[in-house]
Design brief:
The chain has two helices and five strands; from the N terminus they run ααβββββ. By secondary structure, it is α+β, with helices and mostly antiparallel strands. The protein has a five-stranded antiparallel beta sheet with strand order 4-3-2-1-5. Helix 1 runs antiparallel to helix 2. The N and C termini lie far apart (46 Å).
């Protein structure tokens, strides 16, 4: 059995292959009605994409839209690795961390 590797140790090419594989598995899980499996695989895709993103492109104090949650916005307090720590503007003000791949620039 192949042991899973950390996304942080994968090359860009390996990450892209992993994302393609996870998306295919997610598509099959969705077709088979395996909702929980589909959700887990989609989260893995988001995490793998975070490792393809450049944390330097995100700035503390800036506001970004949350991908997959239209109308929700996130203000970054600080970046730690591939996670943006901050709070949702329409939320309860509690700190949370989101993978940077979930954040979209406002236009």
């Amino acid at each position: 059995m192949q042991q899973d590797r950390r996304y942080s140790t994968m090359t860009e090419h390996e990450l892209r292959e992993e994302i393609a594989s996870l998306q295919e598995k997610a598509r099959k899980a969705e077709q088979m009605g395996m909702v929980n499996e589909f959700a887990v695989l989609e989260r893995k895709v988001v995490m793998a994409r975070a490792y393809l993103s450049n944390p330097d492109m995100f700035s503390p104090g800036e506001i970004y839209e949350i991908e997959g949650d239209p109308g929700s916005f996130f203000k970054i307090d600080y970046i730690n690795g591939v996670f943006a720590w901050g709070y949702r503007l329409n939320g309860d003000g509690q700190d949370e961390a989101l993978p940077i791949s979930m954040l979209k620039w406002l236009k």
